[in-house]
Amino acid sequence: MCRCLFELSLSQAWKDGWIVIRSALFVAVIAAGTERARVYASDDAPACVPPVGLTSIIPTEHFLLFSDADRRSGEAVAERLEPLYAIVVAHLRRNGVQVAEPAQRMNIVMYENPEVLAARAERAGIVAQGNPPTARVSGFYNAGANAVYLAEVGNRPPGELDPALVLTLQHEVVHLILANVTAAGRASSLPPWLAEGLACQFEGSLAAYRAEQIAVSPYRLSDLRGILGLDATAQAATIEQLRDALDRSRLIPSETFINRKGPLEEPPAFAADRYAQSWASVYSLRIAHPDLYRAVLRDALNKPAEDGRAEIRQNVVSALGDSDAEAMLTWINAVLAHDLDPTGSPK
């Protein structure tokens, strides 16, 4: 049972008045029991039995949302699901990925109380990891249950979603969509850098995606600048800053990173850094090597024969600078300068 765990910490950026959301996502292979309730038997029947106490059920064309939160908050979440689905599916098709309709509605479970989600994660053996160590579980994707689990965060009025919840929702639902509409889209089937880097591509403004822009994930961009010791608006790093990040393992040489097989959260203190590098790596392919990006998606998601995969992987490594710091600096600075959505608040 693959669970993609979203762990979130918040830091205040008083200089520009925005809350910068720093996040780290983790993949854990865990088998866990779940609480069960009655089985629904209607046209809107869930694909799996909902947990006890989640009495509100909101269906959309491709999703079922189960919640014990205020109905208005549930409806605000549900309103984002189909637009996100359409954006992700259109992106996959444009890049040559074979997409099928999901066999059943995909499930979203949202708790009003974050402590309930934290207790569920703890029972499953999932422990919040990250830097700072006060990071908390705010959601995860459960491949075995074909569901995403979330909790409301922040103190927003009912129906007004906190940016942290929007970020969690968009990232984890991308994992869910990929698993249900492609031949090989489960996160556990993909290279770690691609599984998380691809999900990170859809953390930005939905309005930008509708306009067919390549929207920036403001949270990953903020983390990337932090890794390099840059201020909040910097659009270039120096070679000394990059080498320092490599020396301190805040960044990993591209050759090692792309060929890495283990989960990105190891070691836990650098998990947010690994996700920022995953986002930046995929983003760089999109803006600078679109043909290679399409080849990567087709190769990974269409489940072709193994022939050619090593060649594509090596092409990715070369595009991202191998283990050469100066070559890495070139594409990283291109990412830093390609900030189409600098404010970054999902709209």
If helices are DSSP runs of H or I spanning 4 or more residues, what is the number of helices? 12
First CA to last CA: what distance?
A: 33 Å
What fraction of the residues are assigned to beta strands by DSSP? 5-15%
* Uncertain residue ranges: 1-48, 341-347
- The number of distinct β-strands equals 7
Structure description:
With 347 residues, the protein is of the alpha/beta class. Helices cover 42% and strands 15% of the residues. The chain is built from 12 helices and 7 strands. It has a 7-stranded mixed beta sheet. Strand 1 and strand 2 (18-29) form a beta hairpin. Helix 9 packs across helix 12 (325-337). The longest helix is centred in the first third of the chain and has 24 residues, at 71-94. It is globular and about 55 Å long. Residues 1-48 and 341-347 have low confidence and may be disordered.
Write the layout of secondary structure elements.
Blueprint: E1 2-13, E2 18-29, E3 56-59, E4 63-67, H1 71-94, E5 106-111, H2 114-123, E6 136-142, E7 147-151, H3 163-181, H4 192-200, H5 206-210, H6 218-227, H7 239-247, H8 254-258, H9 271-288, H10 290-301, H11 309-319, H12 325-337
Parallel strand pairs: 4-5, 5-7
Antiparallel strand pairs: 1-2, 1-6, 3-4, 6-7
Note the main attributes of this structure.
alpha/beta; 15% strand; 347 residues; 7 strands; 12 helices; disordered C terminus
